[in-house]
């Protein structure tokens, strides 16, 4: 059986950045070399060695309607332009099928700053600001703002997040999970990010000039959103088509949490993967929008990677538009993708700015066959273009576009998928705190060969993730080696991410000053740090993505991992759900009504499952817990769209029917369900009523949160793991794990005997 038989095209573009408030403004500014870099206005940088930033000159009210944090508001602005450009009427029935996948690095960091400034001044902070911190609400808020009813996901792989969101949108469409997606990224300017990069001595003292002076980055803010659509659907509705989006690549350095590999191996790997996934040769690429941050280490490794991979290609042009937009973190890859699509469509390539005459001579001497575009735009025919993004955690992502493709790689043999390893780290009930907490003993890590010096670098969330990851590898009988390091990937789901690290870092710089941020603590404020540390500790160099999308993120990580295998990226994937229990969680969830008298009890933990394709499992002689027979996510926009925790009978019914249909099974065939009930009567009653309507009164429903607490993403992964164990040990024939997340999004996975 073959899948992946649909072309994907770009039909709409939207940008807001320091060089323009829409796509045309931004593209014309980029072509003319106009920089958006100025002295920072958002906060006082007088005690810092750098004072430069690329800020958007619009208020939150001008971006959206004033109800949202700035990161979300930027995403709403760019998404609205992309929808209008694509000619999509969001009041039509079409809206119900449009998904939203957005990348972000710092999410609601500006709201965190506002909250703790109030608290540190002795005033009562507004908890609504603190609730706006997690990235988990962004895509749902954008979807609800425009009445988009398709699947949502927040990709939080730092500076590669925007590019990864496009990669996931392609896979969703080719896998039949939707016809249209809004995909991109958004991030706002923040004191947290500025202080962190300042602490790393990574900020440029003046305007950044990548591949030139390479004395640091200039931080920016903004959003880029693209409408990604199946070719057939676009043609049917008579849409304008900018280009095809051919394929993508994702890889891990497995080297360092902030620095790229000096030999460029990870970057070369992701370029190679993207070219292969797109069905092209290196000689086909005409233009590369480089990551090009302006730091010495990144520029050196990327320069080496490009020259090595495109050796013999005498017509490839390269530029970095960050010299004008600044480095917009999670939005960077999406903004650059929009500019790349425009360059492809119009045959006009933006330059890298900031070169003197002497700089140009040096560039000419070292660039070889590659045309590094400096200062002035280049007009030329471009048929195939690539956009690259590299991030903290050693995460790399690459996307390939084609104006008029004469090569398409649209076939991928579908294989059965199995659960072949399980690693569980869960909490025990603590009467003093009324939570389920986890003890992390250093001796346990030592037993897996993890050294104390490495462990001390990790925050608690990363420690939880690392332990469940190595336990899953051990249970699966997998030893990572040079032979398999590139065919194993990682997909992590989290609801809250590193909330404690973010809050503590922010409180520290409010107290001590932006110039006093900790270089040791800053890397742990990014959501994908846990995945990066797992990659470094194990040597895994394949696909690596972190999803922050509500309580069901653990199940959604399994869905994404399954997709990564089905589309030929990897043979094996570690799929995890991880969340910690902290004072901040308790404060937020108590105010939200999740916890308290007669409500849920908070928990924490990490659960990792190894998902493996049939041929790989057979070759290894692997133990098989269960077979994945169907997986799905679904949501709807009915009800109060300002309520991120709303329940939806339509969405839950849809997701259950989807997995039954994919598995070719009927409701009466199902043995049991691992549900998401957490002790809150209205949630539990809602869930049970739907199950009885579909499966009958006798369906067995198991609720693991009664034993382990509400551990959000970890709970949904634990539901999946426990179901796989039950099937393997003969306690049930088959079953469905179901979980509920942000903005009426539900995920479900159906497992059967292996």
Helix content: 25-40%
Average pLDDT confidence is 94
In terms of DSSP E residues, the strand content is 15-25%
Low-confidence spans: pLDDT under 50, at least 5 residues?
none
CATH superfamily of the largest domain: Thiolase/Chalcone synthase
Q: Please give the radius of gyration in angstroms.
A: 24 Å
Number of separate domains:
2
User: Ends: how far apart?
Assistant: 19 Å
* Number of separate strands: 29
Question: Could you explain the architecture of this structure?
Answer:
This protein has 26 helices and 29 strands. With 754 residues, the protein is α/β, with parallel strands linked by helices. The chain folds into two domains: 2-413, Thiolase/Chalcone synthase (Peroxisomal Thiolase, Chain A, domain 1, 3-Layer(aba) Sandwich), CATH 3.40.47; 417-497 and 548-752, Peroxisomal Thiolase, Chain A, domain 1 (3-Layer(aba) Sandwich), CATH 3.40.47.10. Strands 6-5-7-8-2-9-16-15-10-11-13 form an eleven-stranded mixed sheet, with helices on both faces. A ten-stranded mixed sheet has the order 22-21-23-24-18-25-29-28-26-27, sandwiched between helices. A two-stranded antiparallel sheet has the order 1-17. Helix 7 crosses helix 13. The model has no long low-confidence stretch (mean pLDDT 94). The radius of gyration is 24 Å and the shape is globular.
């Amino acid at each position: 059986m073959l899948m992946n038989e649909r072309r994907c095209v770009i039909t709409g573009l939207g940008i807001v950045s320091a060089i323009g408030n829409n796509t045309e403004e931004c593209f014309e500014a980029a072509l003319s070399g106009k920089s958006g870099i100025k002295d920072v206005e958002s906060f006082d940088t007088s005690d810092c060695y750098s004072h430069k930033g690329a800020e958007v000159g619009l208020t939150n009210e001008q971006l959206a309607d004033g109800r949202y944090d700035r990161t979300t508001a930027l995403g709403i602005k760019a998404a609205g332009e992309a929808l209008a450009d694509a000619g999509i009427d969001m009041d039509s029935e079409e809206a119900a099928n449009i998904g939203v996948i957005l990348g972000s690095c710092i999410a609601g960091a500006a709201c965190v700053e506002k909250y703790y400034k109030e608290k540190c001044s002795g005033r009562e902070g507004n908890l609504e600001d603190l609730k706006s911190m997690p990235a988990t609400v962004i895509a749902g808020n954008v979807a609800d703002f425009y009445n988009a009813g398709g699947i949502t996901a927040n990709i939080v792989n730092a500076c590669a997040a925007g590019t990864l969101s496009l990669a996931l949108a392609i896979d969703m469409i080719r896998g039949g999970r939707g016809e249209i997606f809004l995909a991109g990224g958004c991030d706002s300017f923040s004191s947290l990010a500025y202080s962190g990069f300042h602490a790393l001595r990574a900020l440029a003292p003046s305007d950044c000039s990548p591949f030139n002076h390479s004395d640091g980055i200039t931080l920016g803010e903004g959003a880029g959103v693209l409408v990604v659509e199946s070719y057939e659907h676009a043609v049917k509705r008579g849409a304008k088509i900018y280009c095809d989006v051919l394929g993508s690549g994702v890889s891990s350095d497995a080297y360092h949490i902030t620095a790229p590999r000096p030999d460029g191996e990870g970057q070369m790997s992701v370029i190679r993967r993207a070219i292969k996934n797109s069905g092209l040769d290196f000689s086909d690429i005409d233009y590369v929008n480089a990551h090009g941050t302006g730091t010495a280490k990144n520029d050196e490794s990327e320069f080496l990677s490009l020259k090595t991979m495109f050796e013999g290609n005498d017509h490839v042009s390269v530029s970095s538009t960050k010299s004008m937009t600044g480095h917009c973190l999670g939005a960077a890859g999406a903004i650059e993708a929009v500019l790349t699509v425009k360059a492809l469509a119009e045959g006009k390539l933006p330059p890298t700015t900031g070169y003197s005459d002497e700089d140009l001579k040096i560039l000419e001497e070292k660039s070889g066959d590659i045309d590094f575009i400096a200062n002035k735009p280049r007009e030329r025919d471009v048929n195939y273009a690539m956009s690259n993004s590299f991030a903290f955690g050693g995460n790399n992502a690459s996307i390939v576009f084609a104006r008029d493709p004469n090569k398409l790689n649209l076939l991928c043999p579908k294989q059965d998928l199995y659960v072949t390893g399980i690693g569980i780290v869960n909490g025990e009930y603590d009467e003093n705190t009324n939570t389920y907490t986890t003890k992390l003993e250093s001796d346990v890590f030592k037993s897996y060969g993890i050294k104390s010096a490495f462990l001390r670098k990790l925050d608690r969330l990363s420690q939880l993730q690392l332990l469940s990851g190595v336990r899953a590898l051990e249970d699966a009988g997998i030893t990572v080696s040079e032979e398999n390091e590139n065919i194993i990937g990682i997909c992590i789901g989290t609801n809250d991410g590193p909330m404690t690290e973010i809050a503590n870092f922010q409180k520290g710089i409010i107290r001590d000053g932006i110039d006093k941020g900790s270089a040791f603590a800053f890397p742990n404020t990014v959501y994908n740090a846990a995945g990066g540390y797992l990659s470094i500790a194990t040597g895994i160099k394949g696909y690596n993505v972190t999803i922050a999308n509500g309580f069901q993120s653990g199940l959604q990580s399994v869905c994404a991992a399954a997709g990564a295998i089905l589309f030929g990226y990897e043979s094996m994937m570690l799929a995890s759900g991880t969340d910690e229990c902290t004072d901040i969680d308790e404060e937020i969830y108590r105010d939200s009504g999740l916890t308290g008298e007669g409500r849920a009890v908070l928990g924490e933990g990490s659960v990792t499952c190894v998902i493996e394709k049939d041929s790989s499992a057979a070759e290894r002689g692997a133990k098989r817990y269960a077979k994945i027979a169907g997986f799905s996510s679904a949501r709807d926009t009915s009800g109060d769209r300002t309520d991120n925790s709303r329940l939806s009978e339509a969405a839950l019914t849809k997701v259950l029917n989807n997995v039954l249909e994919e598995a070719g099974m009927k409701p009466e065939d199902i043995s049991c369900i691992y549900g998401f009930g957490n002790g809150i009567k209205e949630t539990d009653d809602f869930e049970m009523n739907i199950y009885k309507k579909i499966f009958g009164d006798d369906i067995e429903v198991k609720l693991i949160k009664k034993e382990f607490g509400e551990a959000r993403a970890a709970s949904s992964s634990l539901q999946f793991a426990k179901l796989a164990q039950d099937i393997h040990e003969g306690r049930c024939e088959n079953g469905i794990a179901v979980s509920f997340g942000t903005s009426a999004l539900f995920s479900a996975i159906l497992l059967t005997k292996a």
